[in-house]
C-alpha cells in the first residue's frame, strides 16, 4: 500500500473554525484597510471554490459559504474567502465583505484535515438526479426526488429509445447509466461511452472504444467536469463531460490475469476502482489478484493501492490460486472517512485434480468473501469481516454495500448491509464489522458443504444468489435473487449443468431492524435487474426483459412492462423518468419511460 503525501483543503462549507494562537482571535478584525486583489481565472482547489485571488502576494480561494466563530457566536459568511499556504502546516485567513471593504476576521493554524472530504460539484448540484451508480454514497439506490409514485406508476410509457451500439459477449449493458442535469451518460459492454439528451435521447457525443473482451459490469462516474470509465480491461480514463475528449488515462493492470470490471466512484478528488482476477475469457488463472486503487481525479496518478489477498504468495500456491477483487462500487461514510468494499471469492472452485475441495487455499483465504473497511484517504485497513471462510463454490460477497442505521435488539447501530452469490444478506456493525444478523434468500441446498465426495447439486450455484445490487428505503432492504443451481465435483464444476432457462427469480423485502423477511415475489426468469426504489415504489427486472414495479411496503404489483430485449442491467431515475438499459438479445436499447 502506498499513497503520495498530499496536503489538501477540506470541504469549505460546514467549516467550523477553531483558533489556536492568541495573536488573532476568530472574529477579531486584524486589518481595516481595503485590500487590492487580482483574479486568477480557471484555477481549482479542493473545496467548494468559485475563483482564486492573489491579495498582497497571498493566495485566496473564494468559497460559497463558511461558518465561523465571531464575537456574537457562530455565524455564516457568504462569498467568504480563504487564504492558504503549504508549509509544515496549513494556515488559513478568513475574510468577509464589510461595506465596500474586505477585512480579515480570523486566523487558523494546524487546520484539522480529518474533516469530511469534498463531494464533486456535479454530484452536489445534481443530487436530485442520479449522479452516482447507486444514487448516493450510501448505495441506497433510492430516490424521493421524483414524481413517480404508486398512484401514477401504472401510466409509465416510452419516452424515447436509444439503440445500444456495442454488443459484447454478455449483451449490450451490465450497469446503470447516470443522469446529470439534462444529460444521460451510459457505457455499453464494448466500453463505448455515450452522452444523450435526457428529454429526447438524442446523441450529444460518443466515445468509441469497441473492446470486445469486456465482461462487465462497467459504467461511468462523474466529477470535476469529467466522466470516468474503464476504457478497456486495463486502463481507466477521464473524458471531458462536455465533449467526450480524453483528458487522461492510467493503466492499472499489465497482465491478463487481472482486469477491470467495475463502475468507478469519485469522491474528494479521487477515483476509486478495483481489478478482478481475470480478463475476457481468462478468469481465475493462477496468480490473479484483485487490487483496489485510488487515483487522483485530476491527473490519474495512482495515490494508493490495496491488495484484497492478504499474502502476496496467494495462500502458499500462486501457481494454482487466484482470487479477491471487487465487482461493484463501494460505499463511503463521509463522517468517518471510511470506504467499504465487498470482496469476491477465492479460486480454483471447487478445486483441481491435484488440489480437490479447495485444498490449495486451505484456511480462510483472506480477504475473500469479506466486507472490508478502509480509510479512503490512505488505503489503510480499519477492519474486515468474512462472510464465508474457505469458499469452494464461487460464492462472492460482491454486491455494493449499503450504509444505514438500524435498531437491532433495542440497540441503535450504524450498519453496513452486504450480500452476494452465497444467497445471504448480512448486517455488519459499521464500527467493528461484527455480523448482527444474517438472512438467507432464495433456494439453498448443499451450499454449506466444505467437502464434496462426488457430483453434487448446489443452490445457489456459481451464477446464483444475489447477483445485482440491492436497494434500501425506510427501514427495508430490497434484494434481487437468482435461483439457479450448479453441479460441482471435488475438482471443479459442470458448466453444462447451468441452465438459465430453468432459473427462477425473486425480489425479497427485509426489515433491517428485525432481520426478517417482510414479503417476497417470485418470477419465472432470473432476477438480474437489481432493485431500485422511487418514493413508495420498488422496481426490478428479469433476464427475459420484464420490468416490474411493486408497492414497497406490501409487495403489491403495480406495473409491468415488456422491454424489447432481455435485462442484465439496472436503471437510473430522475424527475418523471426512469432510464433502463435492456441489452440481452432482442433489440438492445437504452429505454426511457416517463409518467
Distance between the termini: 49 Å
Number of helices: 1
How much strand content do the residues show? Answer: 35-45%
CATH architecture identity of the largest domain? 8 Propeller
> How many separate domains?
2
Radius of gyration: 25 Å
What do we call the CATH topology of the largest domain? Answer: Methanol Dehydrogenase, Chain A
Main sheet attributes: strand count, strand direction, barrel closure: 7 strands, mixed
Q: How would the global form be characterised?
A: globular
Summarize the amount of helix as a percent range. Answer: under 10%
Mean pLDDT over the residues: 85
- The CATH class label of the largest domain is Mainly Beta
**Low-confidence region ranges:** 1-114
CATH superfamily placement of the largest domain: Quinoprotein alcohol dehydrogenase-like superfamily
Alpha-beta classification: mainly beta
What is the tally of beta strands?
49
Q: Would you write up a description of this structure?
A:
There is one protein chain. With about 600 residues, the protein is mainly beta. The protein folds into two domains: about 10-115, no CATH class; about 120-595, 8 Propeller (Methanol Dehydrogenase, Chain A), CATH 2.140.10. About 0% of the residues lie in helices and about 40% in strands. The protein has one helix and 49 strands. Strands 19, 20, 21, 24, 25, 26 and 29 form a seven-stranded mixed sheet that branches. It has a six-stranded antiparallel sheet with strand order 1-2-3-6-7-8, with no helix packed on it. A five-stranded mixed sheet has the order 9-43-44-45-46, with no helix packed on it. β24 (about 290-295) and β25 form a beta hairpin. The protein is globular and about 60 Å long. The protein starts with about 35 loop residues before the first strand and ends with a strand. The model is unreliable at about 1-115 (pLDDT under 50).
Amino acid at each position: 500500500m502506498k499513497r503520495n503525501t498530499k496536503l489538501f483543503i477540506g470541504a469549505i462549507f460546514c467549516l467550523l473554525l477553531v483558533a489556536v494562537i492568541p495573536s488573532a482571535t476568530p472574529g477579531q478584525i486584524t486589518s481595516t484597510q481595503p485590500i487590492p486583489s487580482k483574479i486568477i481565472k480557471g484555477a481549482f482547489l479542493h473545496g467548494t471554490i468559485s475563483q482564486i485571488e492573489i491579495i498582497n502576494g497571498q493566495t485566496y480561494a473564494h468559497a460559497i459559504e463558511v461558518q465561523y466563530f465571531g464575537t456574537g457566536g457562530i455565524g455564516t459568511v457568504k462569498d467568504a474567502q480563504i487564504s492558504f499556504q503549504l508549509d509544515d502546516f496549513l494556515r488559513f485567513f478568513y475574510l468577509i465583505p464589510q461595506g465596500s471593504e474586505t477585512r480579515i476576521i480570523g486566523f487558523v493554524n494546524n487546520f484539522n484535515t480529518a474533516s469530511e472530504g469534498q463531494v464533486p460539484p456535479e454530484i452536489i448540484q445534481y443530487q436530485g438526479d442520479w449522479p452516482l451508480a447507486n444514487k448516493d454514497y450510501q448505495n441506497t439506490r433510492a430516490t424521493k426526488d421524483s414524481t413517480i409514485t404508486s398512484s401514477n406508476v401504472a401510466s409509465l410509457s416510452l419516452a424515447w429509445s436509444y439503440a445500444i451500439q456495442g454488443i459484447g459477449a454478455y449483451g449490450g449493458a451490465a450497469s446503470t447509466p447516470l443522469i446529470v442535469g439534462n444529460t444521460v451518460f451510459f457505457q455499453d459492454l464494448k466500453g463505448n461511452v455515450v452522452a444523450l439528451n435526457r428529454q429526447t435521447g438524442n446523441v450529444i457525443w460518443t466515445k468509441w472504444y469497441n473492446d470486445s473482451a469486456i465482461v462487465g459490469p462497467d459504467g461511468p462516474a462523474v466529477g470535476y467536469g469529467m466522466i470516468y470509465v474503464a476504457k478497456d480491461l486495463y486502463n481507466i480514463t477521464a473524458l471531458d463531460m462536455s465533449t467526450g475528449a480524453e483528458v487522461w488515462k492510467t493503466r492499472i493492470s499489465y497482465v491478463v490475469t487481472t482486469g477491470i470490471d467495475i463502475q468507478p466512484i469519485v469522491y474528494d478528488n479521487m477515483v476509486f476502482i478495483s481489478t478482478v482476477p481475470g480478463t475476457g475469457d481468462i478468469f481465475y488463472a493462477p496468480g490473479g489478484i484483485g487490487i483496489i486503487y485510488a487515483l487522483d481525479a485530476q491527473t490519474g496518478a495512482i495515490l494508493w493501492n490495496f491488495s484484497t489477498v492478504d499474502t502476496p504468495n496467494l495462500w502458499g500456491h500462486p501457481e494454482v490460486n487466484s482470487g479477491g477483487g471487487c465487482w461493484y462500487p463501494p460505499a463511503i461514510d463521509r463522517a468517518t472517512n471510511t470506504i467499504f468494499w465487498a470482496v469476491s471469492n477465492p479460486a480454483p472452485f471447487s478445486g483441481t485434480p491435484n488440489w480437490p475441495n479447495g485444498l490449495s487455499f486451505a484456511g480462510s483465504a483472506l480477504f475473500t468473501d469479506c466486507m472490508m473497511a478502509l480509510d479512503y484517504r490512505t488505503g489503510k485497513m480499519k477492519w474486515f469481516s468474512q462472510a464465508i471462510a474457505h469458499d469452494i463454490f464461487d460464492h462472492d460477497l460482491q454486491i455494493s454495500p449499503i450504509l444505514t442505521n438500524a435498531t437491532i435488539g433495542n440497540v441503535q447501530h450504524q450498519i453496513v448491509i452486504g450480500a452476494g452469490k452465497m444467497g445471504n444478506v448480512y448486517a455488519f456493525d459499521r464500527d467493528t464489522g461484527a455480523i448482527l444478523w444474517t438472512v438467507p434468500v432464495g433456494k439453498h441446498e448443499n451450499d454449506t458443504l466444505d467437502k464434496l465426495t462426488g457430483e453434487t447439486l448446489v443452490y445457489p450455484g456459481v451464477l446464483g444468489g444475489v447477483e445485482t445490487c440491492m436497494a434500501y428505503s425506510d427501514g427495508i432492504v430490497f434484494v434481487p435473487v437468482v435461483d439457479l443451481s450448479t453441479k460441482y465435483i471435488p475438482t471443479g464444476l459442470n458448466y453444462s449443468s447451468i441452465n438459465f432457462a430453468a432459473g427462477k427469480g425473486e425480489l425479497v423485502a427485509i426489515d433491517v431492524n428485525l432481520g426478517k423477511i417482510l414479503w417476497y415475489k417470485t418470477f419465472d426468469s432470473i432476477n438480474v435487474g437489481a432493485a431500485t426504489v422511487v418514493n413508495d415504489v420498488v422496481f426490478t427486472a428479469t433476464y427475459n426483459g420484464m420490468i416490474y414495479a411493486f408497492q414497497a411496503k406490501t409487495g403489491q404489483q403495480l406495473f409491468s412492462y415488456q422491454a424489447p430485449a432481455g435485462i442484465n442491467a439496472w436503471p437510473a431515475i430522475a424527475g418523471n423518468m426512469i432510464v433502463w438499459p435492456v441489452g440481452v438479445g432482442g433489440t438492445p436499447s437504452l429505454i426511457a419511460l416517463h409518467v
